[in-house]
Design a protein that fits this description.
Elements: E1 2-3, E2 11-12, E3 15-19, H1 24-37, E4 40-47, H2 57-64, E5 68-73, H3 75-88, H4 104-118, E6 123-125, H5 134-145, E7 150-152, H6 163-172, E8 186-189, E9 194-197, E10 227-234, E11 237-241, E12 244-245, H7 248-261, E13 266-272, E14 278-284, H8 286-302, H9 305-324, H10 330-342, E15 348-355, E16 358-365, H11 373-376, H12 388-402
Parallel strand pairs: 3-4, 3-6, 4-5, 6-7
Antiparallel strand pairs: 1-2, 8-9, 9-14, 10-11, 10-15, 11-12, 13-14, 15-16
Length: about 400
């Protein structure tokens, strides 16, 4: 079948690889793509730590009409090559969002392109809406890795205009979905976090219902006794938990369970989407919240001041690049080179206290610490000559003083 794309010449679509989650949008998309394009649809699902959500996803895709279905375990690659580099940068978008959804999209799209090459597919598709960030993240990655790929975005083509209309379509065509008219908000879960958007959350004044949360208990219901844990670092990456070495994915999974039990990692924000819309999102990032605090703590005793301040000045741009979908861009890769070099020697152990929604640093130590007690002490010492500070202050005050000197005098 020949289809005319907006702004493009007619082209023939032979095979489509769809980024499939098993949720409402992509479940409907399988049938819609087959009906619209008259070709085979291969469902591709990346296992990024969704846990029980993947138990039936392959059979569901095939029952819904996919000619083939892939479920690929990418958890370790996700943690090691995407989450950990982002954590080394201390990346936070708009002062709060830890980028759990944003960082997952380039890996999904990369693996999807690899599947398209393997299957000789000439097109890829995704279930992101025409209003959101994910469409940009997916498609920038597609084009960066395979410039000649054809991209199909059903939400920009089909006649459905709401999730309610999708639910009605799914019901009419006997497509099983978990979303309902009574619970229409959208969720996205991976090893790093879970997000909630839409439906009842579209009112920024309304508090999220407690029964919505998945990874965390409310701080009020968290244990009355705090828990202490120790995270070991090597060159900017967490490598152990309470003295036990763990793989990146295993460490994150363990931290999610511990921090979640203590009510750590909930966030409710209104953020600025790349397309220009303000959007309310609710997130749970228990393990990630702990790792941000721990990483900052170990940096405080191992990083040079000016290197740290330079990295901090670049962090908002780095976070923005991830949020906007530019993971596979030369500017992000250039920033990553600097960040990774800055992390050499960020090695040691951090002790944290988790208690009723709070994660506080209880101690930090390093074999290469730049913190010198003999310099920092308020007690008697022979290393630092306090009189030296007078000249230091006067030199730094000189430009301030000259602004107030009478004209012609100094």
């Amino acid at each position: 079948m020949f289809i005319k794309f907006r702004g493009e010449i007619n082209m023939k679509i032979n095979k489509i690889v769809l980024a499939y989650s098993g949720g409402l949008d992509t479940s409907v998309a399988i049938k819609w793509l087959k009906e619209t394009y008259g070709c085979g649809v291969i469902a591709f699902c990346a296992d990024l730590g969704q846990e029980e959500e993947l138990k039936t996803v392959k059979s569901k895709a095939l029952k819904t009409g996919a000619s083939k279905a892939y479920v690929v375990d990418l958890r370790e690659e996700f943690a090691k090559n995407y989450i950990f580099p982002m954590l080394r940068a201390g990346a936070v978008y708009e002062g709060a969002y830890l980028l759990g959804t944003s960082i997952a999209r380039p890996l999904i799209a990369k693996a999807q392109i690899e599947t398209a090459k393997k299957e000789n597919a000439d097109a890829v598709a995704h279930g992101a809406t025409g209003k959101g960030n994910d469409q940009v993240r997916f498609e920038l990655t597609y084009y960066a890795l395979k410039p000649d790929i054809k991209v199909i975005a059903p939400w920009r083509e089909w006649s459905f205009n709401s999730r309610e209309s999708l639910i009605n379509y799914a019901k009419a065509h006997h497509i099983p979905v978990t979303a309902t008219k009574a619970k229409p908000y959208s969720t996205d879960r991976n090893l790093f976090h879970i997000s909630y958007e839409g439906g009842i959350l579209e009112d920024p004044w309304a508090e999220p219902p407690e029964n919505m949360f998945t990874l965390t208990v409310s701080p009020e219901k968290a244990p009355a006794k705090p828990v202490y844990l120790e995270i070991g670092y090597k060159d900017g990456d967490p490598v152990s938990l309470n003295g036990k070495r763990l793989s990146p994915a295993s460490l994150l999974k363990a931290l999610n369970l511990i921090a979640g039990r203590h009510g750590i990692g909930r966030l409710d924000i209104v953020e600025n989407r790349f397309v220009g819309i303000k959007s309310r999102g609710v997130y749970e990032t228990p393990g990630g919240t702990v790792l941000h605090a721990a990483h900052r703590a170990i940096e405080s005793i191992t990083m040079d001041r000016e290197v740290m301040h330079l990295r901090d000045s670049l962090m908002p741009k780095y976070a923005e690049l991830i949020y906007y979908g530019y993971w596979f861009s030369p500017e992000r890769e250039a920033l990553q080179d600097f960040i990774d070099k800055s992390q050499k020697g960020v090695t040691g152990t951090v002790r944290l206290k988790l208690y009723k929604g709070n994660c506080t640093v209880a101690g930090r130590k390093s074999p290469v610490s730049l913190y010198k007690p003999q310099l920092a002490t308020f007690e008697a010492e022979r290393v630092y000559n306090q009189k030296d500070a007078e000249g230091f202050i006067k030199l730094n005050a000189l430009r301030l003083k000259t602004r107030k000197f009478p004209k012609g005098k100094i």
